[in-house]
C-alpha cells in the first residue's frame, strides 16, 4: 500500500522488518523499549489516550515550538492512534490490532489491564501467538506488585544509589534514568527471545520485566563485594572498587579519567608520567595492592599530572595505549569526531534541528540512519491504522 | 548425551534453547552479554587463553576460597575450554566450534581477530549463517576505532559523568559499570535481532556495538535539555531535571526518595504531609513551576518530613499510592521481601553461599531459577567440548 521506495526513516530492511508491535505503554520504560524495536525495523503502533496522549508529550524540556523534546527523542518513527480503552467502538479497533500484532507492550500497574479485559490471560487465550510484554516497577508477582515506581525509587531501593556518589556525601542518582532504561533494554531482549521461541513452538509468551529486578541485575561488582567482605559497599566517587588507577584525576587545567588497572597498563601509565619507578614501589606492585593503596597512588599520579594540561596527557596516553579520556559535557560530546564519524546523533525529520541518539546496534556495516523518522502527532496515523486493523492494508510502513 | 531430566540450572527449556554461542570475550561487556544469552537458554562455550584464562578470573573481590566472586557472578553456567588462538591444533578445534555455532561474541580491539584470520570477513565467507558479535570501546569504524576503553572512559567521554553527582562537586561515576553493561544489553538485543533476521533470510550478520555509543544512547533527558536550553546540563544530585518533587529527602532519621511529579501524585503527597495547601501555592501549581522552584519545594517538604521517621512516611506514602522508597544499601536490598519473593538473587551451585542476580526476564510465569548453575573452572569442559566440536555429541547441556 506504499510506494515501492522505502520512505525516509523507514526500517523496512531492518532485522525486525515485518514484525508489528502494539504499544500501549507510556512515559519512558515501555516507549524506550519500543523505540529500540522500531529502530531495529519493527512497525510500532502507539496507542494513546484521547486528547492528552502519552503524558510524556507534556514533559520538560519543551522545545521552542511547544512540543516536548523529551517525548520526541523516544517516540520518533512510531505510528500514533488515540483510542479510549473503555469505549466500545475503540475497543473493537484495539481488538483488531491485537489480532494483527506480534507483540504487545504495556507498562500499566499489574492488574489494570486485567480489569479492562486486556490482561495476558484473556488475550493469550484468543491470541496464542501474541508476545505480551509487561514492564512494571516491581514485577507481576510479589508483595510490591501493585506499587507504582519511578526511576529514582528503584535506583534507591536496589542499592544503586548506595554505591553512587562520594563517601559521606548527599544521596546521588545516576544522571540518566537507568531505572527505566535498564528495564527497557532487558525487555527488548526478552521480547526477541520470546519471538525466537515462537518460531520454534508457535506459541507466544508473557514477558514480565520489573524495573526493580533490572536495577539489581546491574550491581555487577557490589553484590560480590558484600559476599566477600560481609559489608555493603558505599559510594566511592569516580573510582572502581576492583581496579586502580581507575578514576578521575586532576591535571594542570582540569580533570581526565584514566583506566589502567592491569600491571601492563599501569607500567605504560608510569612511563607516560615519567615515573617509571612507580611500578617498583612495593605498595603498588600488584593490582590488589594498588586498590588497597588507591589514595596514595592517586596523590602520586596527580602530582605528575598537575605539571601539564589535560590535552597534553590525553595525547601521550593515547600514544601509549593507556585507556583515558576527557570529562566531556554533553555539548562537547556531540562535537566529538567519533560521534560525528559514526553518526550516533542524527537529526529528527521535522524536528527543527533536534538530534537524538540512535539505538546503538550496527548490523553488517549498515550505517546508522542519516535522519531519524518524524515524531507522530497524537492520532496522526488514525486512518492508516484503521485500514490496517480492518485488514484493508497489509503494512503501515 | 545427558540424562533425560534437565540438570540443575539447565536452561534447556529457555527461549534460546538449542542456540550455541561461542564466546571469545573477556572481562565484562562480552561476558555479561553471554550470561544473558545463557540465562535465556543458549549454550555458551567460553574460549579462554590457556593457563591464565579470562583475566576477570583474577579480579577483586576474591572469595575466601580464593576464586574471584566477580568472575563467578557473570560466568555461571558457561562451558569453558582453554584454546591458544595461535596454536595450529587449537585453531582446528576453534574452527570446528565456529562451524557449529550460531553466534560468536568477541570484545577484542577492532583488528586483533582479523590478524589471526578470525575477523568477520574471513569467517562470514565460510560461515554465512554465523552471527558475529563485536563489542568494542568505540566501534568498528571511526577515528577512535583502535582505542581501548574501559567503563570509566566511556562514562566520562559520553557526558554521563557530567550529569551525575552534585553541583560543584568532584567527578562522579555511576557505581556500577554501566559503560560495559549498557553495551552488553544492546548487544544481547542486536544478536537476537540478527537471529530473527536469519530465520527469514538464512544469513548471519556482523553486529557492531560500541560502549561509547551505548552510553550516549542512555542520555534520554540530557540531550533534549541541551537542545532546548542551548546549555549542557550539569549534575543535580538525586533530582530529576524534568520532574519535581522527584528526589531524595531527609526525614526524621534518614533519607527516603519520593517521585511525585504529576499534579495528581503531588496532591496525594501534600495530603500525606498534612500540607494540603501546598497545591494552592502558585509557585508549585504546575509541573514546570515545581521544577523551576524545586529548592523551595524541597525545603517545605523536608520541614514536614523531619517530624517523623522514614518508616512512618513510607507507610503513609504507600497507602496513598505515592511512589517512594528507602535508600537501601546492598545488604538491606538483599533482605527485601520483594527480592525474596521473586527470587532475584539465587545461590550459585557450588558457590559457597554466593548469590548473584538473575537476568531479570520472566517468561510466562516461569519463576527465576532456584539455583544458578556452577561456575566453570578454566578448561573444565574440554572433553565434552572436543566431542561436540568433532560432531560426536549433538549438545553440551
UniProtKB/TrEMBL annotation, chains A, B:
Keywords: Plasmid, Transferase
GO molecular function: transferase activity
Pfam families: CoA_transf_3
InterPro entries assigned: CoA-transferase_III_domain (IPR050483), CoA-Trfase_fam_III (IPR003673), CoA-Trfase_III_dom3_sf (IPR044855), CoA-Trfase_III_dom_1_sf (IPR023606)
Source species, domain of life: Bacteria
Gene3D superfamilies: Crotonobetainyl-coa:carnitine coa-transferase, domain 1, formyl-coa transferase, domain 3
Protein name per Swiss-Prot or TrEMBL: CoA transferase
Species this chain originates from: Comamonas endophytica
